[in-house]
TrEMBL record, chain A:
Residues 1-20 form the signal peptide. Keywords: Signal. The keyword Membrane does not apply. GO terms for cellular component: outer membrane-bounded periplasmic space. This is ABC transporter substrate-binding protein.
């Protein structure tokens, strides 16, 4: 077949295909979520959690609910909430786990069902739901990922915020972007908690970091993964990212809590409003929030601090009582979040021209 | 001999509205399609840009954008970056295609496939690969520091790095288009030029570049738009070099400080900027309104001497650099890994993990979405090109401009628009394959439209007029005369459309679910879960699959010469 004939034939075929596709092609791949059988065991889980976390949870759920079939749609918290909001005319997912930061306040009030698990009473008092739809299930505490080898080469010992202002670290500290990433916001919040909300000391520290050319990375995971790769000496990040790397066998980095004290963002799980399979989602969340579920998950995954009153032993995290904690004023932070982010943007623009 | 003529538009455009014909209905059909699947969804997004929290009208988001240096800086950065990338891509892409077209090179097919593959690395994973290679702790960086410490090597991060990565990724856009254009130059023109004393580089500049100017401009526009719209690369390796699209992405999909209204306002500014660039390009192209058609193509020469050696070094060096990240990903896909960390030793574990993660479904979806969208794209592009070039009028220019808008808008905005528009009856398409195909067609049609339009401008109208005067109907003339003549030009765009379709991610983020997942989305999901080994396995399969499709294509079309 000559080339021209091939193209002519191709165009004709394309024309017929095009019209076929316009007429509702792919209908057979749709459906799924919207069926309403009574004993439906299909769960669509929107999650921003890592591989490690999802595998553990999936295993536990399959054991607890025989016959369950879990479809996981992964993405960043921002992608997923935007998605839920856009899909509100025809919800596609049942529940969201991870990334729902209690510091978001009532922002997502319209897209989640106002429902709390039967185990709200088993949650530590400071992590009780602030608004009736956040089931606060795990914590994310601020920590430094430090590359031991590079630190040694520079002859430093990095343990506190003040150590980060050393000129030797110029351009070698990394953090995610506070205007888009919750882990970076978590770090700003901790600086506020350590030095005082909106205090001059807090802003002096932030300005100092920017003037020491702190690198703003595109993703939250860069702040620990690229420290492990040797791209940076220190990452301002959260403990479970570092712990996961340690669990995977990383040997050149350590989990360093700031001497000045650390505090945690609380993350939660919720049922999507109008979820096609809300009853199953509620059963699953009841399990996640139960002391039994919290212990099983926390101990199996080993890298995440849980919110339950029950004791959870973790292989990769120090016991809560061994870490120095500072009080975080969540209500104040929630209320002033936009202002802090805006002020951060201003300082950023000023320092970087 | 060469037919060189100026199309006589003025004569044919008179009183079109009074005499509707079959093309008038095509125009109406296209307007309907763009209205429903582009304007209507975007309207939903754009409306947000002037609405405040309580539903009232406001300009405050525009004021906020225009009054802050921080935000204006992102536009400036995007412009500077896109212009730099366009210039570098032209500078490396035009010689590449000149050597490719006029010289008999060994391994020409390999060079072609390599060049096309280098523009297909999916966002995130391609940039991630460059970080592993040339970041501060990168493989290449470490090697150079150890063995060639006297050469000052910087890292990949920042402005220079983005230009480097994007130019390597986008120069194939230039060269694939330019191959077709160079081939359409008739040897008699070049001989005439030599006789008049225009030889060597002078001749290339005075004759060849001018003759191919419509294509050069079309290619520049695509590179510019592509660089302007890209957000994966600046996001990962920008390090503080903030661009416009990263800002929209953050405002729409970021975890903190999301502001959809503000994001929509940035989107509107983006559309205005695109429209301006597009109109400037159109004006520039109209300065070169002539058609050429080679009846005696230039013979290929054998490369000789030191020049020949340098030519081989240039061609293979460029392709090697372009496919380096892909090759590194293929290598990594065989490395043992444990979630976020690569471990010593090699195995097929990543592929086994992929097989348990919807590998077959992803592959199948990638193929069938790819070919279905490509089919629609080819048909629509040919029709649109015809309308624009042969039947220029207000409505058809509008279609042309509309079709370019998706080029600049970040895929996420188009994804959001489509979900908002089609998530409730009568057109409840959310979660179906149809909505993904619509997104793919809208996003990736410009490649084929641009190449089809540029090609048709080269084709004299005389053959069509001959067919019409011999009694062929308008449609018969179009399908039997015009379309076959356009074939070579359409294919170049279609190849690039296809390659970019299979790597499409940003609009799919919001549209896919596990039933409509593709290989690229599987790779992205693996990255966002922090499983880099698995992501590499999916990407490697995608790369190999695309290479195989390209090779099959070349097998079918090429005897001696590769037609593009």
């Amino acid at each position: 077949m000559s080339f021209k004939k091939l193209i002519a034939a191709g165009t004709a075929l394309a024309a017929s295909l095009a019209f076929a596709a316009c007429g509702g092609g792919g209908g057979d791949t749709a459906g799924g979520g919207s069926s309403d059988q009574p004993e439906n065991m299909d769960l669509v889980l929107y999650s921003s959690m890592t591989e490690n976390d999802l595998e553990v949870l999936q295993g536990l759920l399959e054991e607890k609910f025989p016959g369950i079939s879990i479809e996981i749609v992964n993405g960043s918290a921002g992608e997923l909430t935007t998605r839920i909001q856009s899909e509100s005319g025809k919800p596609q997912g049942d529940m969201m786990w991870g990334g729902l930061d209690t510091a978001d306040g009532d922002k997502h009030s319209a897209i989640f069902e106002h429902w709390l698990s039967d185990h709200e009473g088993d949650v530590q008092d400071q992590y009780k739901s602030p608004n009736g739809f956040y089931n606060v299930d795990h914590l994310s505490s601020v920590a430094f990922a430090v590359n031991n080898n590079l630190e040694k080469e520079l002859g430093l010992s990095i343990t506190s915020y003040e150590d980060l202002l050393d000129p030797k670290l110029k351009g070698k500290i990394v953090m995610a972007d506070p205007t888009s990433s919750s882990s970076a916001w978590n770090n700003l919040s901790n600086i506020m908690a350590v030095y005082g909300n909106d205090s001059d000391e807090a802003w002096k520290m932030i300005r100092g970091l920017l003037e020491n050319d702190i690198v703003i990375a595109g993703s939250s995971s860069a702040a620990f993964a690229s420290v492990e790769d040797g791209e940076y000496v220190v990452g301002l990040t959260y403990e479970d990212g570092i712990a996961s790397l340690l669990k995977s066998g990383a040997e050149n980095i350590r989990l360093q809590y700031p001497d000045n004290g650390t505090s945690a963002s609380a993350f939660s799980t919720a049922v999507i409003k109008g979820a096609p399979n809300a009853p199953l989602a509620k059963k699953v969340i009841n399990y996640i929030m139960s002391p039994e579920g919290q212990q099983a998950f926390g101990e199996a995954v080993g890298t995440v601090r849980m919110t339950t009153k029950a004791e959870v032993k973790s292989e990769f995290l120090p016991v809560t009582s061994e870490v120095k904690w500072v009080e975080r004023d969540v209500a104040w932070l929630t209320e002033h979040r936009d202002e802090i982010v805006e002020k951060w943007t201003d300082v950023f623009t000023e320092v970087n021209g | 001999m060469t037919i060189l003529s100026v199309p006589q538009d003025g004569v044919r455009t008179k009183s079109r509205l009074l005499r509707p014909d079959v093309w008038t209905f095509v125009t109406l059909f296209m307007l309907g399609v763009f209205g429903l699947f582009l304007v209507y969804p975007l309207w939903g997004v754009l409306k947000e840009s002037v609405i405040d929290g309580d539903g009232g009208f406001t300009w405050k988001y525009f004021v906020q954008f225009l009054s802050k240096t921080y935000y204006l800086g992102t536009i400036r950065n995007s412009f500077v970056l896109s212009i730099a990338v366009t210039l570098v891509s032209l500078a490396i892409g035009i010689p590449f295609s000149y050597f490719y077209t006029y010289f008999k090179l060994r391994g020409a097919k390999f060079l072609f496939v390599g060049a096309v593959l280098s523009c297909m690395s999916a966002p995130f994973i391609g940039a991630y690969s460059w970080i592993l290679l040339m970041g501060r702790g990168g493989l290449v960086t470490q090697f150079l520091e150890t063995f060639l410490p006297f050469i000052p090597v910087g890292s990949i991060y920042g402005f220079g790095g983005i230009v480097f990565v994007l130019s390597l990724k986008l120069f194939p856009l230039v060269s694939v288009y330019m191959n077709g254009a160079f081939r359409s130059i008739d040897s008699s023109l070049l001989e005439a030029a030599s006789m008049m004393g225009s030889t060597g580089l002078k001749r290339v500049w005075q004759v060849m570049i001018r003759l191919t100017m419509p294509t050069v401009l079309a290619a520049s526009l695509l590179v510019f738009m592509r660089a302007f719209a890209d957000f994966g690369t600046p996001l990962l390796i920008g390090e503080g070099y903030r661009t416009f699209t990263v800002e929209i992405y953050n405002q729409y999909l970021g975890e903190t400080g999301q502001n959809h209204n503000f994001a929509a306002a940035i989107g509107v500014i983006g559309v205005l900027v695109t429209a301006a660039v597009f109109l400037i390009q159109k004006y520039a192209t109209s300065k070169f309104n002539f058609s050429i058609k080679a009846s005696r193509p230039v013979d290929k020469k054998k490369p000789r001497g030191i020049g020949g050696v340098l030519m081989y070094i240039y061609m293979y060096g460029l392709v090697a650099l372009g496919v380096l990240p892909q090759l590194y990903i293929i290598y990594l896909s065989f490395r043992n890994s444990n979630s976020g960390k690569f471990l010593p030793g090699y195995s097929f574990d990543n592929y086994q993990a992929a097989a348990s993660r919807l590998l077959w479904r992803s592959t199948w979806n990638t193929l069938w979405f790819g070919f279905a969208s490509l089919a629609i794209i080819i048909v629509m592009s040919v029709l649109i090109a015809y309308l624009v070039v042969r039947r220029a009028n207000f409505a058809n220019n509008l279609i042309d401009t509309l079709s370019m808008i998706p080029y600049i808008l970040p895929g996420a905005v188009i994804g959001i628009g489509l979900v908002l528009a089609f998530n409730s009856p009568p057109l409840a398409l959310t979660g179906t394959a149809t909505i993904i195909i619509i997104a793919l067609v809208i996003r990736r049609m410009p490649y084929t439209i641009r190449s089809a339009t540029a090609t048709l401008m080269h084709i004299p109208i005389s053959a069509e007029e001959a067919a019409r005067s011999l009694g062929a109907s308008k449609m018969k003339t179009f399908f039997r005369i015009t379309t076959p003549m356009m074939a070579a030009g359409i294919t170049s765009g279609a190849i690039l459309s296809f390659v970019s379709i299979v790597t499409e991610m940003s609009s799919a983020i919001l549209l896919y679910n596990n039933k409509t997942i593709t290989l690229t989305m599987s790779a992205y999901v693996a990255i966002s879960r922090g499983n880099y080994g698995l992501a590499c396995a999916f990407s490697a399969i995608l790369t190999v699959l695309t290479a195989v499709i390209l090779l099959i294509y070349l097998r079918f079309t090429a005897e001696e010469d590769i037609q593009m």
